[in-house]
Write a structure and sequence with these properties.
By secondary structure, this protein is α/β, with parallel strands linked by helices. Helices cover about 40% and strands about 15% of the residues. The strands form four sheets. It has a seven-stranded mixed sheet with strand order 6-7-4-3-2-5-8. Helix 4 (about 145-155) runs antiparallel to helix 5 (about 160-170), helix 11 packs antiparallel against helix 13 (about 330-345) and helix 22 (about 630-640) runs antiparallel to helix 23. The two termini are about 20 Å apart. The chain binds adenosine-5'-diphosphate and magnesium ion. Magnesium ion (MG) binds next to helix 13.
Length: about 725
């Protein structure tokens, strides 16, 4: 590969031992290549300079030119001081503020000298303020005379200030209009290693680099009109204009996404060739008996379609890896169960895994209820199944007498061995990546068919990356008779009227969930919050009975409390997010979420899915304090607006970005993405997928000389990528 890019950063002029250490520790930059791939987070149009007079607090990052009038220092604590520079360009005065590094600023930025200031303006004490701005000295040239005159004109109101500043700047920097800005850390800033320094280092580097070799095949760059790699690297740092900048970004994003897709598809194709799938050719007695005698309601069309898709996969001779997406309450469990029955009909065992003990136990109940009167042995295996019971289950799995195993992650432990495991269902699990799936395969001769179910619909482009080796089925229809949940937003100052509403519903025979945020189940303050809240609620509703569950309770205790609510003995269930997934109490019609601002969108949607399961109108009440951030307001609005899980997932992805999404890291398939963004670059993901697909179809064994360069590059990327370790 490009050996020059592996060169130690130390050899770059301008990088001494100090900077080398900072670059390495703070940014992970060790080589030329690392620096080249340290892309600017933004470019500022340098041809635009504002006057201080026209600045407002809601402007984004801007530039002004002027000089410092004086410094003021405020003591903030024993060792803390705030340094403020009063700064003017003749149109008005603004403040430059340093909470850290004020000493450095005072020493370096001289009073009276001209500086270009870059930063985000805010209003403080009714004056424009820049906190920790970047300053760059502006060389005063002969034009300075003109500048002064122009300034006076500006003050007279004869000429607009920007024009003045613009013309001044233009003479300073005619070659470069878009200037790159790089993220730096506090530590770097303190040592004077600023975005500016980085810019100079990158410039030095780019000037010394030979033309870099291409890493995409010509037929792709040509047909997709992509910029060459060499040009893209240079342009992304120092673009001549925004159009070329965009082209450079597209090229580099595409490359990242393309290799991720190629990697995923190569893996999937490998697995297919290596393993045969069990062939479940018959739909027999068990399935038919269930269908004709036990099924309590007709299947929805969507359920039927998905079952057909699964049946087809299971009979095909290739191992099924299928993702089943369906909104909360769409009836995924039943689809899973009927698929398990097909496995049993063909002489195999099946297993369903849930993320929590409560949910596993609930699945057990549901499945036993559905299979009543049938000769099917269902067993439970979780962390709390111990001793003799556990041994019985393990024995039953080994001698094949247990047909269906319901459990938690305990199921993938090595000690759990099956006689003939043919089918595995993973419920509600976004954390279940390729690596865990691979672990299942050790449990039988051939890998079992796998169905991963999720109620957090994943936008298609993300699914392609996260679960890129999976086929996707969608249940896009809810069982008939469900009324959409009505969602409202209430400020916490109006609790009394909320209580009245709750009382009303309970008097009508309904039940109510009240959820407290408990982001970290280990956080003591949150737990206290729940305990205190529980007492308040008990006093507010002396006429009703309340249950309480949270993640720190003993499983048995938890189960008992849940059971009291399920059976209708208690009317109110006070809980943390342990009830987020799976709990099914059709009589519950109200979901109150306290401090809703502390929950993410998909969490809110999951919680809401706990109600609206019966025939009655259900309600979801989101309670928040009066003051909300803009993001929170958006989240709440979306929730009140729609019940559509796909719309919510899409909005969520846009608000949070995929980095936060559970699974992107764990999936073990995506290389570190430096520039591409799966949430926003959906079209490019699609494009990369198509190109990778064509290549895999053309060369499934990854042997052809035509693609030798690609396979080599993929090997190199895998070697240098830690994520990959999870699967190989
Ligand atoms: P989820 O997809 O969220 O896992 P569940 O499988 O828990 O949904 O199903 C939600 C509820 O809908 C359950 O009570 C289930 O028995 C019921 N249900 C499933 N399929 C149908 C159907 N076709 N008609 C009516 N009710 C159904
Ligand atoms: Mg479910």
């Amino acid at each position: 590969m490009d050996s020059i890019l592996l060169q130690d950063i130390m050899y770059l002029p301008g990088v001494g031992p100090n900077r080398k250490k900072l670059l390495s520790n703070e940014l992970g930059i060790n080589t030329y290549g690392d620096l080249l791939e340290y892309y600017p987070y933004k470019h500022i149009d340098r041809s635009k300079v504002y006057t201080i007079r026209e600045l407002t607090g809601d402007m984004p990052y801007v530039q002004v030119i002027g000089h410092i009038l004086s410094y003021e220092t405020f003591q903030m604590g024993p060792r803390k001081e705030r340094v403020v520079a009063h700064f003017t360009d003749g149109t008005a005065i603004c403040d430059l503020t340093w909470f850290n590094g004020g000493k450095y600023a005072k020493q370096n930025y001289k009073i009276g000298q001209e500086y270009l200031v870059f930063g985000k303006p805010t209003v403080f004490n009714s004056r424009i303020n820049f906190t920790h701005p970047e300053l760059e000295s502006v060389e005063v040239r002969t034009e300075s005379v003109e500048f002064a005159t122009a300034h006076e004109q500006a003050l007279d109101g004869n000429a607009p200030g920007t024009a003045v500043a613009n013309s001044k700047l233009y003479t300073l920097n005619s070659k470069l209009s878009l200037r790159p800005y790089y993220n730096t850390t506090e530590k770097m800033k303190k040592s004077g290693l600023t975005s500016h320094t980085l810019e100079r280092l990158v410039k030095t580097l780019i000037d010394r680099l030979p033309t870099l070799p291409e890493t995409l095949p010509a037929f792709i760059t040509e047909s997709r009109h992509l910029m060459s790699r060499d040009e893209a690297f240079r342009t992304i740092h120092f673009p001549p204009n925004t159009k070329e900048l965009e082209r450079a970004r597209v090229r580099l994003k595409f490359e990242e996404l393309f290799y991720v897709q190629l990697n995923i598809l190569r893996y999937a194709s490998d697995q297919r060739r290596k393993y045969r799938g069990y062939v479940f050719s018959t739909v027999g007695n068990v399935f038919n008996t269930f269908y004709h005698n036990n099924l309590p309601f007709p299947l929805t069309e969507a359920q039927k379609r998905v079952i057909r898709e699964i049946r087809k996969d299971m009979g095909s001779g290739r191992q099924m890896n299928r993702l089943l997406q369906g909104d909360v309450g769409s009836g995924k469990t039943l689809v899973a169960l009927m698929s398990m029955l097909i496995a049993i009909d063909n002489g195999y065992q099946a297993c369903i895994m849930a993320p929590t003990e409560i949910l596993a136990e609930q699945h057990l109940q549901t499945i036993m209820q559905f299979l009543k009167g049938m000769d099917i042995r269902v067993a439970l295996l979780t962390g709390i199944v111990k001793g003799k019971t556990r041994q019985e289950v393990l024995d039953g799995l080994l001698d094949g007498t247990v047909h269906i195993l319901v459990g938690t992650h305990a199921v993938i432990e090595d000690t759990v061995q099956f006689a003939r495991l043919g089918f595995v269902v993973v419920d509600e699990q976004h954390r279940f990546g390729v690596a865990q799936r691979a672990k299942l395969w050790a449990k039988s001769l051939n890998p079992p068919h796998v169905l991963v179910m999720t109620a957090t619909p994943i936008p298609r482009t993300l699914a392609m990356t996260l679960y890129g080796d999976l086929d996707v089925s969608v249940i896009d229809e809810l069982p008939p008779g469900r009324k959409p949940v009505r969602t409202t937003h209430v400020f916490d100052s109006r609790m009394t009227s909320l209580y009245d509403g709750i009382r009303q519903q309970i008097r009508e025979g309904r039940q109510v969930y009240i959820v407290f945020p408990l982001i970290e189940e280990s956080e003591k303050s949150d737990l206290k919050n729940l305990e205190d809240g529980f007492e308040v609620l008990k006093q507010a509703f002396p006429e009703f009975r309340l249950s309480k569950v949270h993640g720190r309770m003993k499983p048995k205790e938890k189960e008992e409390e849940m059971q009291r609510f399920v059976s209708g003995e208690t009317q109110i269930l006070v809980a943390t997010t342990v009830i987020e997934v799976g709990v099914n109490v059709p009589n519950a019609s109200v979901m109150v979420i306290l401090d809703a601002q502390r929950f993410g969108l998909s969490q809110l949607h999951q919680l809401r899915g706990r109600v609206g399961r019966g025939a009655d109108q259900s309600f979801c009440i989101l309670v928040t304090p009066y003051k909300l951030s803009e993001d929170t307001r958006k989240r709440i609005d979306i929730m009140c607006d729609t019940n559509d899980g796909f719309r919510i997932a899409e909005a969520d992805l846009k608000l949070r970005g995929p980095g936060d999404l559970e699974g992107t890291q764990q999936s073990g398939m995506a290389f570190d993405l430096k520039i591409a963004d799966i949430a926003r670059d959906g079209q490019l993901v699609q494009m990369a997928r198509e190109e990778a697909q064509k290549i895999i179809e053309d060369d499934p064994e990854c042997q052809s000389a035509r693609y030798a360069m690609l396979w080599q590059r993929l090997r190199d990327l895998r070697k240098t990528n830690i994520n990959w370790a999870a699967i190989s």
